[in-house]
Batch of 4 targets.
Target 1
Amino acid sequence: MDLQSDPIEVSDETESAIREYHKNGASVIRGILDKKWISTMREAIQRVLDHPGSASVEYTPKGEEGRYYGDFFLWRRDPDFEEFMRHSPLPAIAAKVLKSNSIRFFYDQLLVKEPLTKEKTPFHQDLPYWPLKGEDILSIWVPFDRVGLQQGGVRFLKGSHHWKQRYAPTAFGKDSGFAKIYAKMGWEPLPDFEKNDNTYTWLNWETEPGDVILFHPLVIHGSGGNQSSNQRRRALAMRFLGDDVVWDSRPGTFIEKETIQEILPELNLKDGDQLESPCFPLIRTFSIQPETEIMKQNNFQENSIRNSSHE
Ligand SMILES: O=C(O)CCC(=O)C(=O)O
């Protein structure tokens, strides 16, 4: 067990980014990761790109320019990814955003768009892809290159996380094997937001390595290809879970894919279960919350004793 429980102190800028996140569904925190994390993780990402994992997906068709590479649960096979999810500043930020007494790691997702990659990331909400119910879910998008819209920076539809509607997941690539799984869900497809692009307010940021973007599991988002001929776009999406999240066994989520099942042999959760599984490690046990959260924190102390006896 490797649990973090140090008090969380965040800067005024981070506090303000957290308020913005709750209001708009996405926000940026500047300069939160130091150079050591960036260089270590760039090397780790290169190891993965050179030796693709069994669950990885090459979204760029063979023979086309560029490379859109996707991979999942890297922390399970590379110690630097595990170190990053446990010991970077991100779990503490997640605890602060989610006001949660415990933080679990759901998974990390690598999304690399090499120069001249044409493939877009289709607009989508994340939660429909996931076998989860609950509110306490946060993604943090971590770029390891300078990224603007031209390099495939992610765009977020401002405020869309407040909408009641949930749309069917869209497969990122036609041949990735996910489309037939998602079709099982039978939900309404996402409207073509790009067609009426000007009708909506979009958020996006030019980001430098060290910056991170917080985004909500229901905010509508997507990205273009990487039009640059010489700038890479290496990014890692980190998914954190808080107290109220339970397993949702509805059909058609990404976890059904055989290649994902194969890398999670211990997975054995039933509908409504808490995510107590080595596949989704508990990485923080408590956080210092604002005064209004003190009651919740008292309850937490009992929970954390219970939790620590499980893992
Ligand atoms: O990196 C991208 O292009 C999209 C990221 C994304 O959709 C996600 O992390 O949910």
Target 2
Amino acid sequence: MAFAERVVAQALLVVMAALLQLSQAAVYKVGDSAGWTTIGNIDYKQWAATRTFQVGDIIRFEYNAQFHNVMRVTHPMYRACNASAPLATYTTGNDSIVITTKGHHYFFCGVPGHCQAGQKVDINVLRTAETAPTPGPSGLSPPSAPSVGVPAPSESNAISLKASKWSFSKLGLAMGAFAVLLSGFY
Ligand SMILES: *[C@@H]1O[C@H](CO)[C@@H](O)[C@H](O)[C@H]1NC(C)=O
Ligand SMILES: *[C@@H]1O[C@H](CO)[C@@H](O)[C@H](O)[C@H]1NC(C)=O
Ligand SMILES: [Cu+2]
């Protein structure tokens, strides 16, 4: 391989690796610096509304486990703050939940009074036009949000990583640019 070709090939690899990173999962800490709490009347609805969640993203609940917990519940239970039969309960104080399906994922704190006080959040992964909707009864998210204890992707990537849909067109653009560059070598 000629030197110039090798340089171009290596540069292409770097660009492709960078683009692949774009489709990596994001980590969202619920409530940001405030975390998961009843103090300060955090508007978790507003918090969720200003984010675009995707399948593969990680939702992290950080809280004092002496005072709070996390329950994943159905839509009716969410609306009623009914903690009698949660789909899943998390109690470590630092729970990372991988979102594996599209649609709504309802969580609240199961400590009496806390959900009513607003400690509840609806993580909604939009069903985009290009992917088929997940089958299942409406208003009930499929039971598939396992907790993970492994180190997660860094939070700083959360915003920039939302561009996965562009990856392929960007990849095409980048390759086109390199083809132009490449032609300059000969
Ligand atoms: C709470 O949910 C359980 C299980 O779905 C149900 O049996 C019960 O009636 C509900 N309680 C209230 C107060 O809605
Ligand atoms: C929670 O866990 C994540 C890793 O999953 C870690 O980066 C973070 O520092 C932990 N937070 C606290 C408050 O322990
Ligand atoms: Cu609580």
Target 3
Amino acid sequence: MKQIQEFSLHTHTKLGDGYDTVEDMIIEAQKNGLKTLGISDHFWAVRHDLQKYIKTVRRAQEKLKFHVLLGMEIDNPTPERLEMLYKLKRDYGFDFFIGALHDVPYGEKKYYVGDKENKDVLQSQGFQQMYWQTLPNLANDLFDIVAHLDLVKLTGIKTETLYEKEINNALKAFKLNNQIVEINTKHSKIENEPSDTILEKIVEIKIPVVFSSDAHIKNQIVYRFEEEQQRLSGMLSKMRYISKTTELLDFLKFRNSIHNR
Ligand SMILES: [Zn+2]
Ligand SMILES: [Zn+2]
């Protein structure tokens, strides 16, 4: 089966923590036969010069005559920041935002789930529970796509079977907010993100999905899309798998119309 998804939305560039320029990424997207490329650098990486970020993306798009969607990947925002981000999305004309949970507040501090130094804290029941309980915070009008929702496995343990109630709550909230959940292929050689157990719930609740490579380097723009699409073909046929650009744009437009602020 050939790769059929016409776009890759979750990608990082040199403007953030990626390695390649926006132009390099576009050229690679063209080479891979994509119709659309999304650029979604981390908010923390580009926030200090948003104008530069936006201009660079838009200029590259014009120069190379390619369909590019302007996005950002944003961490679980505080309520005050959420309001600011709604305004920012509208004022700067962002096409999409990806919501993600990389850092979780626990006790007095915030911990990155991949923090190797604090493994004992991260693997504690309290922290694991906090991750799953925080996840529904990503359910809102702001985020069109929810990224790697079981990233907590970077802590080195798997607790999804212990927190089924929390996970169900999160998934239902994403569904209610008409959000897309990504199937992240970045670690898919070793690990499925989300796991098959969670993916089965996604099928059941009928949450729309897309494949994301989370590429930080140009040659990974469609990393393992083909393999994962093949592996999941049975499940995908029962899901709302958004694979065409027109379908994606319609979905984003629909979200904008009902979740407009
Ligand atoms: Zn991420
Ligand atoms: Zn990312």
Target 4
Amino acid sequence: MRTLSEIIINRRSIRKYKKDKISKELIKEIINLAVWAPSPFNSQPWNFVVLSREYVLSRKAHIGDLLYKKSEPALERIFKKKDFSQFIVKKFLKGFGNAPYLIGALRSNRIGEIDLGFQRASVYAVIQNILLIAYDKGLGTCWIGVDDESREAVQEILGIDKEKGELLALIAIGIPDQRVRNLERKPFNIWFLE
Ligand SMILES: Cc1cc2nc3c(=O)[nH]c(=O)nc-3n(C[C@H](O)[C@H](O)[C@H](O)COP(=O)(O)O)c2cc1C
């Protein structure tokens, strides 16, 4: 059995998946476990949409192109032109690496009075749980951010009406078809103020 530390350290973003379907039951099981996350005033401000690959590809426009255009300048700036990283991300967003499902994580808009940032933070906590639980079950995932500017168009294209909430991320999920090497951690500070 893998320990929590091993799961946290070894989970990597997967950008290439086997074509095999995974069961809806398994996806429900993962989400039902992931929602044991903290939230402001225990508001639990989240909803989910699970989109099959066929559904995503049948929509009238391709959201991957839209999302890539948003992240391209930053990718070029951070990784430079010659770096492979931006091509990996571009290729991934073209067809989501054949992932059989995308899970849309939404901030539900039924909670009005709680700080928006806090509400979003709790959805992000659920997302991290999803990534870790899926990895523990032998699945791969990749977090695809949906930025404020693209959100309306992405939701429109995917047919996720605003009543369902604010789409914060799409999570590709499926059986991995690649091995990704572990990444180094960058230096950072821990200050104890005593
Ligand atoms: C908010 C957020 C948005 C992300 N958006 C994308 C994305 O649009 N496309 C992508 O390929 N990866 C995306 N990622 C995944 C990161 O690129 C990845 O986590 C990072 O490179 C570290 O790799 P690791 O997940 O294997 O540790 C996103 C991650 C986060 C947290």
